[in-house]
Specification:
26 strands, eleven-stranded antiparallel beta sheet, about 30% strand, 8 helices
Length: about 475
């Protein structure tokens, strides 16, 4: 494009003409020591007779890699491939795939073997269902007080209904006084914490929580969180997929963003009372130790304390699990934690070789967080798409309603994970139970299963099913069944 007519001179016109129509300058003006050219010669344009290099081969010698157990088996068996046992994993399954000469990130290939060499049953395109918290940006607190990192739909677009935060507070540190636009459900992963809140009626609440316990604060309810002398790490789940910790309503910002004369009028004091206000957000900051006796911090007004049936905490760590072959499960929903009227959660433990049975949910997406172990999940979406993802401790999984899925333990230790729903009751549809309570003729005509298999189908919900730690096992028949 030429400059405006009023600015055109013979020199400018010549420069524009040369820039538009002359060949690129091959010797750039660069720093001392620069050499060579940014561009190649015209002779490199495609033509017949280009010699083929015999040096740069894409062939990966078979001596440089090993196939792991199950990798040469029938692709539809879909065995879990343990790539930790080989230094140079390859995207091969059965007769499908080929070697990968690189460039590669071997660590990612190893921990995502079902994406690198997917089961033959995976089909079609599929949105990502996994986000490792280890890839999230960490916001660091003041003076070593802690940190926080989050997952929301900015990093996991499929997670439209829920978001999560992993937060750590050092001993005695605070998460600043605040409130949210979303409901907040929390699980204590490590340590202990004191929480305090006040509702819209002026009723107050305070409690101490340990690892394995839960709190819930409704949207808009202001609250404080302080680590006790061992520090704390907790998981937060919010009922907004777009939720961001950066949008939290903070007490420090509330006071900084209002005129001091207005603050003085509101609190019936002089403006000089605000001379020592923080100059910015505190967010996560060091604090003085909380009194050991919690009653020393009981503060109440005319409305009194929050009634027990509306308590903001639940001591899930003290709930005995429901144990079945293959593991155990604890369920917490409004049945026993009524304040969390739309939060229904299962804390699931899956033994090595076992799996959370094939199922789907009726009225909520599923947001899961892996607390321990390694697992894989295949998600099926109608009409014919499926994808298998691998998970480790610290990963988030997200499955939209009503897509079917399972959670299989692929490691040597128990898998422990949270299964979070936005629903008034924790429910699911068990595939095995559904078939067991369908007329056998219908099942046989549809799936062509053997009569013995149809006769053994359960008429109860299993939740979990046992398996084998042999990754290539194909026979899971239970004797006498």
């Amino acid at each position: 494009m030429l400059p405006p007519r009023s600015l055109i001179t013979p020199m400018v016109l010549g420069i524009c003409f040369q820039t538009a129509f002359s060949a690129p300058i091959t010797t750039p003006i660069g720093p001392p020591g620069a050499s060579g050219s940014l561009y190649g010669p015209e002779a490199l344009l495609g033509a017949d007779g280009n010699p083929v290099s015999s040096v740069d081969s894409a062939v990966v010698p078979t001596s440089s890699y090993d196939l792991v157990a199950g990798q040469t088996s029938e692709t539809d068996y879909g065995f879990y491939l343990d790539f930790d046992s080989t230094a140079n994993p390859q995207p091969i399954r059965g007769s499908q795939g080929a070697t990968d000469p690189g460039s590669r990130n071997y660590n990612y290939d190893k921990i995502n073997s079902d994406l690198f060499a997917p089961p033959g049953t995976d089909s079609g395109d599929f949105p990502n269902a996994k986000w490792p918290m280890g890839l999230s940006h960490n916001r660091l607190g003041l003076s070593g007080a802690g940190w926080a990192r989050q997952q929301n739909d900015a990093v996991l677009p499929a997670a439209t209904a829920m978001a999560g935060v992993d937060m750590r507070l050092s001993p005695n540190a605070y998460r600043e006084l605040h409130w949210h636009s979303a409901n907040e459900w929390s699980y204590i992963m490590n340590g202990s914490v004191r929480v305090q809140a006040m509702n819209e009626n002026g009723q107050t609440f305070i409690d101490d929580l340990n690892a394995g316990d839960v709190w819930f604060f409704p949207a808009g309810v202001p609250h404080s969180i302080q680590a006790l002398d061992q520090g704390v790490e907790f998981l937060l789940v919010f009922d907004q997929g777009s939720f961001s910790e950066e949008d939290t309503n903070l007490a420090s910002e509330l006071f900084l963003r209002n005129p001091t004369a207005v603050l003085a009028k509101d609190l019936k004091t002089d403006v000089s009372a605000f001379d020592a206000l923080p100059t910015g957000q505190l967010y996560i900051f060091p604090g003085t130790p909380a009194p050991t006796n919690i009653s020393a911090q009981n503060v109440s007004g005319p409305a009194g304390a929050l009634p027990t049936e509306q308590a903001y905490t639940y001591h899930l760590s003290q709930q005995a699990p429901y144990t079945v072959p293959g593991g155990s499960i604890k369920i917490l929903d409004p049945t026993t934690f009524p304040i969390a009227s739309m939060s229904s959660v299962a804390l699931v433990t899956v033994a090595p070789g076992a799996m959370r049975e094939l199922h789907w949910h009726l009225n909520s997406d599923e947001w899961s967080f892996f607390l321990q172990g390694s697992a894989r999940v295949t998600v099926f979406a109608a009409p014919e798409s499926s994808r298998t993802f691998d998970f480790q401790a610290g990963d988030v999984a997200y499955v939209p309603v009503p897509q079917s899925h399972y959670i299989e333990n692929t490691g040597t230790e128990d898998v422990v994970y949270l299964e979070v729903l936005q629903a008034p009751k924790f429910t699911d549809i068990s595939v095995a139970q559904w078939l067991g309570l369908t007329p056998p003729q219908v099942v046989k005509d549809t799936l062509h299963l053997p009569d013995a298999v149809i006769a053994s189908l359960p008429k109860y919900k299993q939740y979990l099913v046992p398996g084998s730690t042999n990754a290539t096992e194909t026979n899971f028949t239970i004797a006498g069944q």
